[in-house]
Specification:
heterodimer, A: alpha/beta, 2 domains, six-stranded mixed sheet, four-stranded antiparallel sheet, 10 strands, B: mainly alpha, ABC transporter involved in vitamin B12 uptake, BtuC, two-stranded antiparallel sheet, two-stranded antiparallel ribbon, 4 strands
């Protein structure tokens, strides 16, 4: 059964249509990637799932529950964690404080929090080394680790990552994608927004390509990687 | 030396009052990036509600044990003004959350004028006199006169400030408050109910302001509907001096301004005390444009 179903989703920013009827399904345990150029509507889709913006039309259903009436601060409670575009770590809070806020919704479950925290520190030993440092003083790659780690602290069923590779050195990208795979193998479903199409298709099970607010292509990662249009427009092949 | 110490004691009293009021300005600015111009009026309401309770017959029994009476009085007044603070946000600011910032500032000015005039209509435009509560109790310490009321004001203010500091810096709720003041949307992704945090700020800030208003009434024994402006502008100055949005900054700014003001009045000229305070504010802002503790974290990209 599908974990997340998006049906005919329309989102407007003022009078500008950002999403014009998106359909998408994510099954439990999958890694699904959303591809496309800047402004195609990838981040908007994630923001709509997180209830940060209200759709004009259409439905988002997570584990059978319509998210329309769920306020943004309750989304994480029902199992969706969102590492937003541009990392958005809390710069004047320490690394440890950032991580603990990731688990804010289950702050009374102290043991669970501690367990997840040590798991996150295992995934990202750098964060453990810098736990007392202010998040704003971390390098870009470390901030990305923190953003992912913070989302993991929520113990989500669905992890949404918005361009985790943006601005990172190739080696770091590999590292982060390896961790995403490991997280997925622990049973966390992943919805990955990426502009690094090659790396994303290597990691994902399935993908959809967005163009100006519409899904223009969907399929398994293999199909997409062999698709003529994807190869030309996104992989830069002749 | 004696003279200096006496001025210092006076300055600390005044400074504690400024610091408590400054916290309200800085906390609201921190989370909404809004200067709550009606905050001075909430401070003023603390004085008026305090006087009303003190003169109510029901209270005279309690004052036979003055410390308990004062405690109850403070809690009652703070609770009442906190309710008004939350209402103020609901009526004047919340409907404007998505409007340009200037709109909310105009609304704040309107709320300030409304509250001043409402109090003037109910209580009149003259000065009202507080009953004498423990004013004659004092100690002489090395030639410095320390009244009980000064000690109470200073201790109560310090307790509030330490309590607030611990809440904000050491608890998960405090971390959520700091996060919400940095980034509303990302805080929501963490499961933080930002609207609740804003409400909490409109409970704590006005309650502290009300306590300060009550202190001024108890100490100077006279209050007036316009006192919110005179104290508000100084407390606001203190918040800027410490770095607006920064909670320890408001505390330090308040105490510093109180001391500068009394020393300036004592050693230079009482009529020049405001000029001296603002001159020092200007120098601090030239030296550190973000205030004494204003944050300057470089965001690496």
């Amino acid at each position: 059964m599908a974990l997340l179903v998006i049906e005919d989703l329309y989102v407007n920013y003022g009078h500008i249509a950002a999403l014009k009827g998106i359909n998408l399904q994510v099954a439990e345990g999958e890694i699904v990637t959303l591809l496309g150029a800047n402004g195609a509507g990838k981040s908007t889709t994630l923001r709509a799932i997180s209830s940060l913006i209200k759709p004009k039309q259409g439905r988002i259903i997570f584990r059978g529950q319509d998210l329309q009436r769920v306020p943004a601060h309750d989304i994480v409670r029902i199992g969706i964690a969102h590492a937003p575009e541009g990392r958005r770590v809390f710069a004047t809070l320490s690394v440890a404080e950032n991580l603990l806020l990731g688990g804010y919704w289950r702050r009374r479950d102290r043991r669970g929090i501690q367990e997840t925290l040590s798991k996150v520190y295992e995934f990202f030993p750098r964060l453990a080394e810098r736990r007392h440092q202010l998040a704003g003083t971390l390098s870009g790659g470390e901030q990305q680790m923190l953003a992912i780690g913070r989302a993991l602290m929520a113990d989500p069923k669905l992890l949404m990552l918005d361009e985790p590779s943006l601005g990172l050195a190739p080696l770091l990208v590999q590292n982060i994608f390896r961790v995403i795979r490991e997280i997925n193998q622990l049973g966390v479903t992943v919805l990955l927004v990426e502009q690094n199409v090659r790396a994303a298709l290597r990691l994902a099970d399935r993908g959809s390509v967005l163009e100006t607010g519409r899904v223009v292509l969907s399929g398994t990662a293999k199909e997409l990687a062999q698709d003529e249009r994807v190869r030309k427009s996104y992989l830069g092949e002749q | 030396m004696q003279e200096f110490l006496q001025q210092l004691v006076n300055g600390l009293t005044m400074g504690s009052v400024y610091a408590l009021v400054a916290l309200g300005y800085t906390m609201v600015y921190g989370i909404l990036k809004l200067i709550n111009f009606a905050h001075g009026e909430l401070f003023m309401l603390g004085g008026f509600f305090g006087l009303t309770w003190l003169t109510a017959s029901a209270f005279s029994g309690l004052l036979k044990s003055p410390l308990l009476g004062l405690l109850v009085l403070f809690l009652l007044v703070m609770a009442m003004v906190a309710v008004i603070g939350v209402l103020l946000d609901r009526v004047a600011y919340k409907p404007l959350r998505r409007s340009p910032r200037l709109t909310a500032v105009v609304s704040a000015l309107g709320a300030s004028i409304f509250l001043q005039n409402a109090v003037m209509l109910v209580f009149g435009s003259g000065y009202l006199v507080f009953p004498d509560v423990a004013r004659d109790i004092y100690w002489m310490v090395g030639g410095v006169k320390i009244t009980l009321m000064r000690v109470i004001i200073f201790l109560v203010a310090v307790c509030f400030m330490v309590g607030l500091y611990l809440l904000v810096q050491k608890t998960q709720l405090g971390a959520a408050m700091r996060a919400a003041s940095l980034d509303h949307d990302t805080s929501r992704l963490m499961g933080i109910d930002v609207d609740k945090i804003i409400m909490l700020v409109f409970v704590i800030g006005p309650a502290l302001g009300a306590a300060a208003g009550l202190m001024v009434g108890l100490y100077y024994r006279q209050i007036n509907f316009a006192m919110g402006w005179t104290y508000g502008i100084r407390a606001f100055t203190a918040a800027i001096m410490g770095g607006i949005g920064n909670i320890p900054g408001a505390m330090i700014g308040g105490l510093l301004l109180g001391i500068i003001e009394t020393l300036g009045a004592g050693y230079i000229s009482a009529t020049w005390k405001d000029a001296i305070s603002f001159a020092i504010l200007i120098f601090i802002l030239i030296w550190r444009p973000t205030g004494l503790l204003g944050e300057r974290v470089a965001d690496k990209v």
